[in-house]
Amino acid sequence: MKTSLTIAGSDSSGGAGIQADIKTMLANNVYGMSAITALTAQNTMGVTGIMEVTPEFLQQQLDSVFTDIYPDAVKIGMVSSPQLIETIAENLSKYEAKNIVVDPVMIATSGADLIQEEAVSALKEGLLPIATVLTPNIPEAAVLAGMPVNNDDDMIEAAKILSNAYGCAVLLKGGHSKTHANDLLYSNDQYRWFKGERIDNPNTHGTGCTLSSAIASHLANGHDLETSIKFAKDYVTGALRDMLDLGSGDGPLNHGWNYNA
Ligand SMILES: Nc1ncnc2c1ncn2[C@@H]1O[C@H](COP(=O)(O)OP(=O)(O)OP(=O)(O)O)[C@@H](O)[C@H]1O
Ligand SMILES: Cc1ncc(CO)c(N)n1
To answer: Nearest residue CA, atom 25 of ligand 1?
Structure first.
């Protein structure tokens, strides 16, 4: 069985972060492992607390995983401080990690800040250059590319800027678009749209975590990037279409929609 590692924060409500990643990996046929960067106290209505691990403890987790069950792919999600970002960058180089999916988590769907401001430059210096694919949503792409992203042409321009600056593929997710749910891949000076049916479901907590973990799972299983994105998008679409409705705020997806008999 192929293996995949998520380096991300825990979401106590189970819909995003580590919990979404592990569920997604199971449902997409890989063995999932985790290195936790922070605990969050959160639910469908918001984040009430964040407790970061120390860089030393993150280091111990990464050593434990990489020296025993080597991951075939790595997904990186919420990492809120420059020190933790440096620890991850150093270790992924040291252990020659491959198939690295970087989801530059900045703000929760509920609106909470999940990254310290000074960590954004550490992210740009340490993690984006080693990414196989970067998966920003529209607001994150605007921050990273330094330009407003208001329409499809802006999405193409921002993805191009990021792909050229960091030498990685960029999947700019369209979930925040008012009109569609199309994601744009910019890679090797070419772009391709992954068109998605926009589902009328207010419960979108963790869609980004779920998509990036599903991409990592399919890369781990040996698929190329475009095939992995297509499979991952189909998985997220199915999980949204299932219309799970939990909690009083922005609820989670059904990660097991394709799994339970
Ligand atoms: N209403 C929707 N219908 C269909 N697909 C959607 C919808 N909302 C989001 N998606 C898809 O979900 C994936 C994640 O995109 P999105 O832009 O929501 O990420 P995100 O903001 O990082 O997610 P989150 O912060 O909630 O984890 C993309 O493939 C996007 O197209
Ligand atoms: C821990 C965590 N990671 C990522 C997100 C973004 O959805 C979230 N809400 N919580």
So the answer is: 109
Given a contact cutoff of 8 angstroms between Cβ atoms, the answer to whether 229 and 216 are in contact is: no
3-state secondary structure of 42: strand
Q: Which of 22, 23, 43, 114 to mutate to test the pocket of ligand 2 (most atoms within 8 A of CB)?
A: 114
Structure-token match 């909470």, residue found: 112
Main-chain phi, psi angles of 2, to 5 degrees: -75, 160
User: Which position among 24, 87, 132, 207 bears the catalytic label?
Assistant: 207
For 74, 203, 213, 230, 254, the CA distances from 31, given in Å and listed in that order, are 12, 27, 12, 20, 19
Task: Respond yes or no: is residue 49 known to be catalytic.
Answer: no
Q: Write down the ipTM of this complex.
A: 0.98
DSSP string, 144-212: HHTS---SHHHHHHHHHHHHHHHTSEEEE--TT-SS---EEEEETTEEEEE--PPP--S--BTHHHHHH
In angstroms, what is the span from residue 81 Cα to ligand 1's centroid?
A: 25
Q: What is the pLDDT of residue 179?
A: 86
- Write the pLDDT tens digit of every residue in 185-215: 999 999 999 999 999 999 999 999 999 999 9
The ranges assigned to domains in the chain are 3-253
Question: In whole angstroms, what is the distance from residue 8 CA to residue 126 CA?
Answer: 16
Superfamily of domain 3-253: Ribokinase (3.40.1190.20)
Most informative mutation of 105, 204, 213, 240 for ligand 1 (most atoms within 8 A of CB): 204
For ligand 2, whether the C-beta of 77 sits within 6 Å is yes
CB atoms closer than 10 angstroms to residue 62: 22
